[in-house]
Amino acid sequence: MMLTALSSRLRGEGAFFNPTFYMCSDLAGATNTNQPNRLRSNDMKHNPLITLALMVAAPLLLASTAQAADGAAVYKDKTCVACHGKDAKTPLLPNYPRIAGQNKAYIIQQMKDIKSGARSNGQTAAMKGIMHLVSDEEIEAVADYVSKLPTND
User: Do 42 and 78 sit in the same domain of this protein?
Assistant: First the structure.
């Protein structure tokens, strides 16, 4: 059924193409004959193959979203720019670090230490208030972005 229905849809026979329906309907073993493009709700609830497919697909979709974090956007959105400067080398105060071109692993470690409280000297107070809003994926993205910025040297 799946290949026949799919090939007829690819040839343009029918107004609606939904390959997921055809794959899932064959797995479920039955479709709703009144609405051929929809699975019956019971088909989804009781089929372990569909449940397994959803369990495998969901983390992959979430992982791809997390990996899409744009370091430049996170640097701006999480207000790093306010203290470290737009170019990450002109800080607001002279005792704030210039982080442009800094080693990526070092930046990640410093941000994680500030977030966890392992690093809590006087200069970390401003960052401590922000770091609880920054995920590990965003820390990685910012560190990657900042490490590739040119330095003054």
Answer: no
Asked if residue 109 is part of any domain, the answer here is: yes
Q: Identify which of 145, 133, 127 has the alpha carbon closest to the alpha carbon of residue 71.
A: 145
CATH number at residue 108: 1.10.760.10
DSSP classification of residue 119: -
Closest listed residue to residue 102, CA positions, set 32, 43, 152, 47: 152
CA geometry: angle 135, 140, 142, nearest 5 deg: 95
Evaluate whether 134 touches 76 at the Cβ level (below 8 Å).
no
Which residue ranges of the chain lie beneath pLDDT 50?
Answer: 1-32, 41, 43-44, 64-67
Name the domain count of the chain: 2
**For position 8, what pLDDT does the model report?**
47
Q: Both 60 and 94 in a single domain?
A: no
